[in-house]
Please model this.
Amino acid sequence: MMLQAILFDVDGTLVDSNQFHVLAWAEAFHAAGHDLRLADIHAQIGKGADNFVPALLPDVSEAEAKELGEAHKALFARHYSHRLKPFPRAREMLRRCRDAGLKVMLATSASGRELERNLDVLDARGIVDGWTSADDVGHSKPSPDLFKAAARKAGVRPEESLVVGDTPYDIDAATAAGIRTVAVRSGLFDDEVLAGAIAIYDNVADLLARFDDSPLSGRSATGD
Model:
């Protein structure tokens, strides 16, 4: 079936933000009396707060999980949001997809407010066709809800779209939605945990450089 849309994850894929989210989460956990290893926090990056907090603190109450999520948002906004930058050639990647006749959607487990900030960082409002955030769905990644919603907003079937993401949770969510994934290593996850993707590239600049031979061209389903 012909490829019609690309659904992009944002944090760690288009915007260099994963390490800042790790630090904000670590501060939020510490303030609440939970000292966690940064590596353990990073291993869960890509999930929304509804799934992120219980993965690290299985016995936490729903109320405390919500408080931790709000604390993370506040800390991130206060200390790290001004340091966000797009990955090299991220905006060009979005435009290249549009030039190829593909619909371009953003799908993030972040809140709508965080997504708005990333749209500004990417200067992408005039390029993308639409977006979905954690505010739009009942459950964040690795639930398939975000990618299902993004495909629906794009007016395409799951099999007519591809996800570009940086975490194993993007792959899990896309697979559950019936969508294939192209992964990038910019989120600092090992290839072993990205193995469910149909192709893996170093970053979006690498993917852009090899666009014509990538799954995004609709002519190939392999990468390296």
Remarks:
- The beta strands are 5-8, 103-107, 130-132, 161-165, 180-184, 199-201.
- The longest helix spans residues 62-79.
